[in-house]
Design goal:
heterodimer; A: alpha/beta; Rossmann fold; four-stranded parallel β-sheet; 12 helices; 8 strands; 11% strand; B: mainly alpha; Fumarate Reductase Iron-sulfur Protein, Chain B, domain 2; binds iron/sulfur cluster; iron (chain A)
């Protein structure tokens, strides 16, 4: 099944003299992390289904530098940024879609003053526009009436004020969208941001992902929808350590849509 | 005889305002110890933010109970202080209720001041109960022990005393008006103090005059003391909320500043043509400045103004995921520490004829520990929550920048992550050449 996906690279398209409409920025997690790779593929399947003319950078893509910047290593961040910008500009990229809110935020907000100006959208925004333009249709079916809660990724929600796109997609599934105690502007972090993903947490009385998982459990949702590969990992771990893996699933919004369409 | 009190009044007024001006000067001097930052773009948006957030208290009502009570105290306080204009004129010129020629409008003003005064007293009492009896969690952190706790209560007592003096003054005045006392012409409406007036009228004219005069003097002296207390208190936010919101960071919260000093170095490193031995251009001395912040002078002036504007309300800390899960980090403490250290540096400068004398201390380690700095997830919950648009996160990140770029003192796991990015362009030890393997898996 998976070999049925079509993922052209910029290098391949350029060799054929073609120009894609949009670049899919996969990100490090989406490229290497086993769980996140599934999200990447689900999104690609939706892109294929909607016949989107896209491409990826493949081996020419490199970390945006987000975790380095937030850890305080501005030098490394700017080196990453400049080499990515060089690649992006050499392909004359205009529009970028990404399934990682950290890449989204960094490229959209922090690359422009370093010479990289692109139109950047999160994959939930992109999918919503595909639905609006009629290029993609979704039938609720499988998820009809299911209780789904959406966890706002900090760098999508608070960081960039994108709250509606993922929620509208969930509603398209005819699911019952429920909110956690803290949501939207006041959404609780999953604990991964600011490079915390890569280190043990400081001493405290609880892990942040557990606190967030408890809020999700309080909402009585059967599915925690996420829009970020890092949140996904944190919440999946949270659900696991609460021994709820059988009753609560953590899924990316793109996975929900692809699964609803049996892709 | 009359002139004596006018002269005394003028002296008190000059002393009060003069001392305040001196404090204000010190405040501005201290804020200027910070690094330059240009933030005067997008002016219409800045005015709008200030009007909504500072004047309109937009972010206070996110928590409705505290928000509404705060608005009452704030509106009450500001409006009742219109009365101060009259007090000052009366005091300087020996008049009494000089604005009473406004007639019905004057009655309306005094009447509404009285109602507001009562509402303020009620709100302040509820605030006191929340702080001292119900003990909301956010008022109980370690940084709130000692002076910050007393400060919060002193302000509440102050407000009650000022309001009570205002009502007492009016009550005595009203009694004297009823008695037809000389100088006390009929003026004003007293919907609240008339009840108090009924109680004190029997005391007789001379006692009433004494009460009225004492309350009048204590009221104005109290206001001047309050004005001068601000500098030493979290209540500085009454004034600083305005510039602080005007100079807010208007970019999306997720956007962190790109350090220009780093950009020039990176460009040099990445440009094969660049001459590494080139002399720095004129005006480039800034580049020599260290990366990031280890003390208050390394922060920019808006961050320092933020510290003075902090109301110590703890909304940031109560939304902070690290703090909620028992980590040492409290964004409020970051702001309070910054202010305390800045005050210490300011006093040092005052004591040494205007030059800072090395004191072997700094913001990092002596005030803010590394453990606090590394616990932050950069989630921006604190920034979003702050009712006066303070950004504790920017200070945390500037201090991390110092630790990483000047001291290479990141936690080991983060060093590994950064080495990975350097070597294979991913935070994990995977080869960049394998980046597209998922396509075929
Ligand atoms: S940005 Fe850092 S300090 Fe602020 S709320 Fe989030 S974790 Fe706490
Ligand atoms: S930084 Fe803002 S939210 Fe935090 S205590 Fe100070 S005023 Fe309150």
């Amino acid at each position: 099944m998976s070999n049925s996906i079509k993922v052209p690279t910029m290098a391949e398209l350029t060799a054929e003299g073609k120009i894609p409409d949009v670049l899919f920025w996969v990100g490090c997690a989406g490229s290497f992390d086993d769980r996140a790779k599934k999200i990447t593929k689900a999104f690609v399947k939706l892109l294929n289904k909607a016949s989107v003319n896209f491409a990826v950078l493949g081996t020419e893509e490199g970390c945006t530098g987000d975790p380095a910047k937030r850890a305080g290593n501005e030098m490394l961040f700017q080196m990453q940024a400049m080499s990515n910008i060089e690649v992006l500009n050499s392909y004359e990229i205009k529009k970028i879609v990404t399934s990682c809110p950290h890449c989204f935020n960094t490229i959209k907000n922090e690359y422009p003053s370093l010479g990289g100006q692109y139109q950047v959208v999160h994959h939930t925004q992109f999918l919503r526009s595909l639905l609006e333009e009629g290029k993609l249709t979704i039938e609720g079916g499988k998820y009809k009436g299911k209780r789904i809660t959406f966890h706002d990724p900090c760098y999508l929600g608070r960081g960039n004020n994108v709250y509606q796109a993922p929620r509208e997609l969930i509603e398209k599934l005819d699911a019952e969208l429920v909110e956690m105690k803290s949501c939207k502007k006041r959404g609780l972090c999953c604990g991964a941001g600011g490079a915390q993903m890569f280190k043990e947490a400081e001493k405290g009385d609880k892990e942040i992902n557990i606190a967030r998982t408890e809020e999700a459990m309080d909402s009585k949702a059967e599915i925690i929808a996420a829009g970020c590969p890092f949140c996904n990992t944190m919440l999946t771990d949270g659900v696991k350590s609460k021994e709820k893996s059988t009753s609560i699933k953590v899924m990316d919004v793109a996975e929900l849509l692809a699964d609803a369409e049996d892709l | 005889m009359n002139y004596v009190s006018q002269i005394v009044f003028a002296l008190v007024l000059i002393a009060g305002i003069g001392y305040f001006a001196a404090n204000l000067k010190r405040l501005i001097r201290n804020i200027r110890l910070g690094r330059d930052l240009e933030r005067t773009d997008r002016k219409p948006e800045r005015w709008k933010t200030m009007i909504l957030v500072a004047l309109g208290q937009q972010k206070m009502v996110v928590r409705p109970i505290a928000g509404i009570l705060h608005i009452i105290v704030y509106v009450g306080f500001i409006i009742i202080n219109i009365e101060v204009i009259e007090i000052i004129i009366d005091g300087l010129f020996g008049t009494h209720r000089v604005l009473s020629f406004l007639g019905g409008f004057y009655d309306f003003l005094i009447g509404s001041f009285e109602i507001l005064a009562l509402l303020v007293i009620v709100s302040v009492v509820i605030f006191w109960i929340r702080r001292n009896i119900i003990k909301l969690r956010r008022f109980l952190f370690s940084e709130m022990k000692g002076w910050p706790k007393s400060d919060a209560n002193i302000i509440l007592y102050f407000e009650v005393v000022l309001m009570v003096l205002f009502l007492t003054m009016n009550a005595a005045d009203y009694s004297l008006q009823q008695l037809g006392s000389e100088h006390y012409q009929q003026a004003g409406a007293f919907p609240v103090s008339q009840y108090l007036s009924n109680l004190i009228t029997p005391l007789g004219e001379s006692s009433l005059i004494l009460i009225e005069r004492s309350a009048w003097w204590l009221h104005i002296v109290g206001i001047l003391i309050f004005l001068n207390y601000l500098y030493y208190s979290k209540h500085l936010h009454i004034l600083l909320a305005f510039p602080n919101t005007w100079f807010s960071d208007l970019n999306p919260l997720g956007q962190m500043n790109n350090m220009e000093s780093v950009t020039s170095e990176v460009k040099l490193m990445m440009d094969p043509e660049a001459d590494p031995y080139a002399m720095p251009e004129e005006g480039d001395e800034q580049d020599v400045a260290k990366f990031g912040a280890s003390d208050v002078g390394d922060l920019n002036w808006v961050q320092l103004m933020n510290a003075y504007s902090c109301t110590e309300c703890g909304r940031c800390t109560s939304e902070c995921p690290a703090s909620q899960t028992g980590k040492k980090l409290s964004p409020r403490k970051i702001m309070m520490d910054t202010r305390d250290r800045l005050e210490e540096v300011g006093k040092n400068i005052d004591a040494n004829n205007g030059v800072f004398k090395e004191d072997g201390k700094q913001l990092l380690d002596d005030y803010i520990t590394r453990e606090e700095l590394w616990a932050c997830t950069t989630c921006n919950a604190c920034v979003e929550a702050c009712p006066v648009n303070i950004n504790p996160l920017s200070i945390i990140v500037d201090m991390r920048r110092f630790l990483v770029m000047e001291q290479s003192a990141a936690p080991m796991e983060l060093n590994n992550m950064m080495t990975n990015i350097e070597n294979n362009a991913a935070p994990w030890p995977y080869n960049q050449m394998d980046r597209l393997n998922w396509r075929n898996e």
